[in-house]
Amino acid sequence: MDAMLESHWLKSLQPVGRIALILVLTWVALRLSRPLVNRFRGVIVKAEPDTEEAKRVATLTHVIQRTIVVVILGVGVMLVVSELGINLGPLLAAAGIGGLAFGFGAQSLVKDVISGFFLLLEDQVRVGDVVVIGGTGGLVESIGLRTLTLRDLAGNVHIVPHGGVERVTNMTRDYSRYVFEIGVAYREDPDAVMGIIANVGEELRQDPEFGPDIIEPLEVLGVDQFADSAVIIKCRVTTRPIKQWRVAREFNRRLKKAFDAHGIEFPFPHRTIYMGEPKRAAAPPLRVVVDQAGGA
70, 86, 102: which is the final residue of a domain? Predict the structure, then answer.
């Protein structure tokens, strides 16, 4: 009788031992997943942490790590349920039917996940980029499989579902550019003005503080258009990613001082008054009153 009780006790402990082993292995797998993914990232990227390639791999490995955690937990739960004597066949069948019904009701969620997968796979956006999505611009703080987080210049956070992303304007991919449209008065010599602009751009490129951010010399593209009150001269500068606004603000400051030093007039609205002519081709009289100070 004692032998039978002992045998029954040992049999009852076997599922408990297997469940404990499954839980331990699941915990070990979760603990090892992060170091293994980080090591894999270190093998792929041999560059500095702030490079574009490092940002892309960091984004991908973050998503991969979260996916691995979900898979490990899912497998662990199914093994524990199996050890408890619950038949997984009906549960999986019911889960499949429920998943199908859930899929019809959560089409936008599935669309977000699929769009997010291809967004990461095609390397359209990276963490640290400045992008414009659907008219909303900002710095990409994080990218998941379903949403993308932007923070604009005012500090506002925008959560953008991947399924709603139809067009992405990446302003900091590999390099950045700033396009200047500089207006001067019609009486100014455009060649002289373009010479001053080029000199200011070269001085800025030689500056030890701003020069390292400028990749190429300032390009003066020439007279772009004749506006109502100004001649528009277009030029552009190529900088390191996200540095174009810093360089542009300093360039504008120096250009204003250079224009003032050379007497270059910034445009202001002009209006020409046409008094009209009668059929006799004689212009109507224009009465001018002169005040005591001698002005008209």
Answer: 86
